């Protein structure tokens, strides 16, 4: 029992420390460390081979690698900016939409790319409000977007249909949007001055590219039940459309170099290697000895790890297997509570890269930003805890 505890703690420490440099390597390294402490080396080797030979994981990894390329191409050829510029709505809503639109295709430095658009849309809006909007609304679409890499892999770990998970996440997404409106947008008035005339093509083309991937993914999963290959097909289709419908030629090699898609792709086998080794090790037995209800353990653990690391995938890859190890059923409602606690811990984390670059761009202190985000974040977490308390009654 001592070796299992020690190995589990060392594996978590390995993940947290190495994740500062490379998340994929951190997850794989933490998995191997846990395995070496809790099972024979041949079993560790077997789990590694099991992971790298699983085609559902391979398809998912390839899809996750394509998503930042798709985002990079749409930014380089101006499709994202075109979408934002042709959504003719009030300034307060356009600020939120500009941040959220960039968030649909998560990629490194995405918050830094949306910040200049917010600056252009709201030159008279206080900088701390623009920074908060850039961080808060950027992530609200990601919470319920079916091509969010964090959501896809978390749902797969929990063995849930991602679209079923979205139905349970949607109410919190709407509440979060309402909180963001009340706290950040309500007092912003006026309209945006546009430098170009409205263009239907400028609106429809990027929407077609963005929506094609989830539509194809959803359709193929429902009609042919082909799992993660449907996700790969949908993302690949969106990528092709982004290239052929773009009005500018894009240096694809340059986009690949900038977005570093291999970092996104390699996270997937790392996450599932940790899951498989955890499930087969005796570390799962020690979880039953922790004197907390499994749901409360997963909620608090996910939130604390997300705040500490500024990530979603890392805490999810730890707390979801921990909850599953208890033998408790993973219903869509339980999954939604755990995922929301983790996700909003990530949004408000002072080491979250999007938060940091937003503060830097708008010249706002990290302390001020965290304070602005604390109220809506704590409201969301309080609602989750109330829901958990009712569930446990």
Task: State the main characteristics.
mainly alpha, globular, single chain, 0% strand, 393 residues, 20 helices
Summary, kept brief:
The chain is mainly alpha-helical. It has helices at residues 2-18, 23-38, 41-52, 55-76, 79-85, 91-103, 110-121, 127-144, 149-157, 162-185, 200-223, 228-245, 252-259, 261-280, 283-287, 294-309, 313-325, 332-347, 353-362, 366-392.
Describe the structure.
- The chain is mainly alpha-helical.
- It is 78% helix and 0% strand.
- The chain contains 20 helices and no strands.
- α4 packs parallel to α12, α4 crosses α13 and α4 packs antiparallel against α14.
- The longest helix is centred in the C-terminal third of the chain and has 27 residues.
- The protein is globular, with a radius of gyration of 21 Å.
The separation of the N and C termini measures 31 Å
Gross morphology is globular
Unreliable segments (pLDDT under 50, ≥5 consecutive)?
none
Radius of gyration using CA atoms only: 21 Å
Quickly count the helices.
Answer: 20
| Helix percentage range | over 70%
Average pLDDT works out at 86
Strand percentage lies at: under 5%
Compute the number of strand runs.
0
Spell the H/E element sequence.
Answer: HHHHHHHHHHHHHHHHHHHH
């Amino acid at each position: 029992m001592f070796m299992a505890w020690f190995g589990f703690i060392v594996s978590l420490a390995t993940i947290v420390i190495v994740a500062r440099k490379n998340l994929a390597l951190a997850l794989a390294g933490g998995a191997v460390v846990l395995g070496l402490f809790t099972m024979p080396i041949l079993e560790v080797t077997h789990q590694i081979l099991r992971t790298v030979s699983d085609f559902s994981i391979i398809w998912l990894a390839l899809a996750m690698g394509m998503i930042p390329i798709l985002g990079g191409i749409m930014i380089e050829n101006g499709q994202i900016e075109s979408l934002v510029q042709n959504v003719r709505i009030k300034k307060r809503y356009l600020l939120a939409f500009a941040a959220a639109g960039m968030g649909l295709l998560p990629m490194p430095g995405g918050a830094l790319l949306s910040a200049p658009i917010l600056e252009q849309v709201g030159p008279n809006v206080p900088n701390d409000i623009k920074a908060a909007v850039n961080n808060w609304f950027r992530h609200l679409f990601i919470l319920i977007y079916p091509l969010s890499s964090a959501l896809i892999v978390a749902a797969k770990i929990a063995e849930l249909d991602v679209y079923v998970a979205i139905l349970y996440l949607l109410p919190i997404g709407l509440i979060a949007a309402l909180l963001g409106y009340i706290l950040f947008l309500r007092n912003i008035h006026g309209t945006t001055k546009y430098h170009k005339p409205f263009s239907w093509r400028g609106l429809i083309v990027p929407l077609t590219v963005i929506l094609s991937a989830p539509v194809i993914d959803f359709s193929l999963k429902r009609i042919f039940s082909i799992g993660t290959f449907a996700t790969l097909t949908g993302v690949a289709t969106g990528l092709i459309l982004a290239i052929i419908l773009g009005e500018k030629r894009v240096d694809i090699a340059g986009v690949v170099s900038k977005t570093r898609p291999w970092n996104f792709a390699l996270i997937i086998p790392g996450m599932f290697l940790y899951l498989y080794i955890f499930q087969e090790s005796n570390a799962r037995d020690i979880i039953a000895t922790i004197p907390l209800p499994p749901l409360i353990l997963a909620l608090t653990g996910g939130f604390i790890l997300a705040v500490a690391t500024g990530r979603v995938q890392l805490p999810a890859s730890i707390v979801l297997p921990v909850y599953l190890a208890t033998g408790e059923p993973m219903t869509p409602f339980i999954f939604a509570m755990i995922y929301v606690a983790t996700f909003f811990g990530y949004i408000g984390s002072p080491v979250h890269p999007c938060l940091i670059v937003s503060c830097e761009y708008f010249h706002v202190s990290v302390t001020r930003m965290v304070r602005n985000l604390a109220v809506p974040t704590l409201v969301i977490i309080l609602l989750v805890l109330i829901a958990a308390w009712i569930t446990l009654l």
